[in-house]
């Protein structure tokens, strides 16, 4: 019998504004310690899926109207976003979302807001983030609004790490970044996964890079999962090659 997944999304439906049906029964799971990619074109419903998991749809007038979401076997649909952070589920939003008027270090410290352990542990974690992201250490006193896009993405991931997550929901980290920086960021994500055991659910339009780092992938089209499998199998799938990898 396979081990119980860390995250299980079971047949969820999401409706915006009471009428716009965007997810039409999406199921996926992330094993403990896994990296799973959620792939699909712009508008397929990737962000909506991640926001359903972290319960951030309310602010957008979206609602999960069917299905269940389980974290380590426990239902979590009713938990607030903060309660989910305390349970170890942290979302890194698309577009990076650092506080532009705060310094890099202040941004990182905001990531520890749900923690009740003391300043000492938080200071240690700040050093831990700087070990993963030496560029952020160099930039620690810069205002986040004035650092590069790649550094802002690092800052957003570093901020998530400050919450000591079990799982990071990473929304389109490659967006707007040069290929070399994309690789640099994915390498760090891979290290976090391998060294800290952080599980990753990654939404990406960049199928190539996502399937290089993920072990398993799901392809979302128009609010439905149309294909899923091991990353290697997906890379070799003819439809995936033709429609998502551009190397038919
Ligand atoms: P992207 O790469 O653009 O983020 P995505 O796959 O993440 O794409 P979503 O952002 O989840 O897609 O959007 C899925 C669908 O839901 C789109 O058709 C979008 O127009 C619609 N949608 C998203 N947010 C809302 C909203 N607040 N109200 C109504 N419709 C929305």
TrEMBL record:
Cited SUPFAM superfamilies: P-loop containing nucleoside triphosphate hydrolases
The keyword Zinc is annotated on this UniProt entry: no
Domain of life: Bacteria
GO terms of molecular function: ATP binding; ATP hydrolysis activity; branched-chain amino acid transmembrane transporter activity
Pfam family, one: ABC_tran
Keywords assigned by UniProt, alphabetized: Amino-acid transport, ATP-binding, Nucleotide-binding, Transport
InterPro entries, sorted: AAA+_ATPase, ABC_transporter-like_ATP-bd, BCAA_Transport_ATP-bd_LivF, P-loop_NTPase
Record domain ABC transporter: where: 7-247
GO biological process: L-amino acid transport
PANTHER family: ABC TRANSPORTER SUBSTRATE-BINDING PROTEIN, HIGH-AFFINITY BRANCHED-CHAIN AMINO ACID TRANSPORT ATP-BINDING PROTEIN LIVF
Family to which the UniProt record says this protein belongs: Belongs to the ABC transporter superfamily.
Protein name, as recorded: ABC transporter ATP-binding protein
High-level lineage: Bacteria, Pseudomonadati, Pseudomonadota, Alphaproteobacteria, Hyphomicrobiales
